[in-house]
Design brief:
The protein is of the alpha/beta class. It folds into 2 domains: 173 residues, Rossmann fold, CATH 3.40.50.2000; 190 residues, Glycogen Phosphorylase B (Rossmann fold), CATH 3.40.50. It contains 18 helices and 12 strands.
Length: 376
Amino acid sequence: MRYYIIAGEASGDLHASNLMKELKMLDCEAEFLFWGGDKMAQQAGIPPVKHFRELAFMGFLEILMNVRKILKNISFCKKDILDYKPDVLILVDYPGFNLRMAKFSHARGIKVFYYIAPTLWAWHESRIKTIKSSVDKLFVILPFEKEYYKKFGYPVDFAGHPLMDALDAEMLNTVPFEEFLKKNHLEDKPIIAILPGSRKQEIVKIMPLMLSVADDFKNYQFLVAGVSSIPEELYKKYIKDKSNVKLLYNQTYEILKQSSGALVKSGTSTLETALLNIPEVVCYKTSAASYILAKQFIKVKYISIVNLIMNRAVVCELIQHELNYSRVKEELEKILFNTQKRNAVLNEYEQLRQLLGGKGASMRLAGLMYKYLKPE
């Protein structure tokens, strides 16, 4: 079968690549064309039509500033889908773009599967109309979403969360702490992980506030998890005067596994950190205008996936004006030095794993998709 897959972010690239791997196990004639990243390219053996680095726009204002480029991508993608004539279009997260592709493709008789459902429970619930009319099968990754979609009379599939597989494999490959230090030329000090995000605007807004407390924790070393899409010069702008801060590229999981605690930008990385069993403080800040606009529409109590799944404040969230030197220092001290607090967080993480359905999510998902696609 011919699969056209669209993933617009790094997390989507990871999950789509694991799905592709499992689909190839089931479908020996699988062919792929895709928008995504390096992990999908490795599975498909060809480069993406568009790399997700060309697609990542954060916040209302940045989207407005790049509207011409976004519209051009939409037109190009529509033509590419029609030219490829896939058996199925698989959309992975990235709803602003992907729901347009769902509507377009379904209207032209192309089967549409959507993996990692849009967060209607957070905002933009009106999108349910497009989903019901244009998506043949919706596959969710958060346990409460199955019940949520029931109220719209729209059945969905939950096969578990794909991070359970990715991180289970990661834990098996953990190297000893001393070996990690030697490999990266680091001091013999405990580590605090800094995950400031994968977009330039996030680095500029969030990382300086995360690192503002570095001088207060001289017995620790802060390791910034750098991503290849961000130039080294931008990171170094904020770490150059801090002797206990180091930048390591493309080693996010390795850094987390060796850390005593973490400061993490809101997003998928908050769940990754929790599943790797690292106490964390969740950090988020955007422009004042984007924040004010978002407040008008977003209707959930929490911004971190951990707290949303558990429906309670398992990890501390420092948002906008709360993300400041004093609060970062206070909350970091709690997760590092307060034994009762650390143990409580780790116990909550264990309950989180149970809710997410265990490993094998990508395999179960591929099985469902193939079952729905193959002729009777």
